[in-house]
Amino acid sequence: MTTPHDPAHDPALLAKAETLIEALPYLQRYEGRTFVVKYGGHAMGDPELARDFAEDIVLLKAVGINPVVVHGGGPQIGRMLKALGIESRFVDGLRVTDKQTAEVAEMVLAGAINKELVGWIARAGGKAIGISGKDGGMVIARKVQAKKPPKAIEDDGEPLVVDLGFVGEPDRIDTSVIDTICAAGMIPIIAPIGVGDDGETYNINADTMAGSIAAALGAARLFLLTDVPGVLDKDKQLLTNLTPGDIARLAQDGTISGGMIPKLETCVHAVEAGCEAAVVLDGRVPHAMLLEFFTSKGAGTLIRAD
Ligand SMILES: Nc1ncnc2c1ncn2[C@@H]1O[C@H](COP(=O)(O)OP(=O)(O)O)[C@@H](O)[C@H]1O
Ligand SMILES: CC(=O)N[C@@H](CCC(=O)OP(=O)(O)O)C(=O)O
């Protein structure tokens, strides 16, 4: 004989219901708002994580939030350049981009990766439109000049200005293309490529692109998915809340370094220019974004203006 299953006393089912109820105030507060999510090239290698990511994005859309995805693809560009016998060189974390490299970057970002992500969203039951910053004249880029680190300072004491070639940063953003896609019930997937006033194609760092788009949209959140649990202190403990002032101190005392510096500069720019808050979180954790957003515990590091 079997005992009939009693859902009212099943602890696992009750826990699921509690999790949904815990999400209710967040759903009410953010309905109709925009979340910009940067999905980095490192996180894309694992198909299970890509599937989880797509499900999270489709869930956000289903509950009335407008997700806007900006993706990277640095490792994938590097592999394609290598296969073509072209060397990759980085200065200040930015890829030195000659004409041929710009063509490869556009092919990999706006072609292969962009359409792969559109496919993942479709498999999760959503509708995505894949575009780059060039489409609809959305992102007009200006050329970036990099300064080499202090050790490269020349004899006359002046930092050596390096010509990065066709590396850009957003100068002007027309958000009407994004608004149109969102209003049609679809999810924009954006490759970090822009066009200059000179008509040239510019390769834009994906964090920078996401931050500028979040600021232009006045997004409720900018999520930057990376390969660490968030910003860590000198004892490797997670710093859960930071302001631009805290970030300046952490940069000065050397707590943050490498790729985390431009990433946090992007967050500071975004929160000071109209985005409500930015979050650096671990893209290797399944459903990290949902945990951060829909539970009271949160995850990762939240950055708000002072
Ligand atoms: N204080 C810090 N906390 C966390 N990560 C840090 C810190 N300082 C430097 N980092 C480095 O920043 C890296 C994240 O930046 P980056 O490699 O540019 O990420 P992504 O490729 O995901 O854009 C981490 O993998 C880590 O090595
Ligand atoms: C100018 C510049 O460096 N552009 C980046 C664009 C891709 C990117 O940023 O990808 P991830 O987020 O995966 O690193 C590049 O060429 O690698």
What does this structure look like?
α3 (74-83) crosses α4 and α6 packs parallel to α8. With 306 residues, the protein is of the alpha/beta class. The mean pLDDT is 91. The chain is 39% helix and 24% strand. It has a domain at 32-88 and 97-138 and 173-251 and 265-300: Carbamate kinase. The strands form three sheets. An eight-stranded mixed β-sheet has the order 5-8-2-1-11-13-14-12, sandwiched between helices. A four-stranded mixed β-barrel has the order 6-7-10-9. Bound molecules: adenosine-5'-diphosphate and N-acetyl-L-glutamyl 5-phosphate. Adenosine-5'-diphosphate (ADP) binds at residues 40, 42, 207, 226-228, 231-232, 255-260, 263. Keywords: Amino-acid biosynthesis, Arginine biosynthesis, ATP-binding, Cytoplasm, Kinase, Nucleotide-binding, Transferase. It comes from Novosphingobium aerophilum. It holds the Pfam family AA_kinase. The record marks 38, 263 as: Transition state stabilizer.
Features:
EC 2.7.2.8; single chain; acetylglutamate kinase activity; ATP binding; alpha/beta; AceGlu_kinase-like_sf; kinase; Carbamate kinase; 39% helix; 24% strand; four-stranded mixed beta barrel; binds N-acetyl-L-glutamyl 5-phosphate; binds adenosine-5'-diphosphate; eight-stranded mixed beta sheet
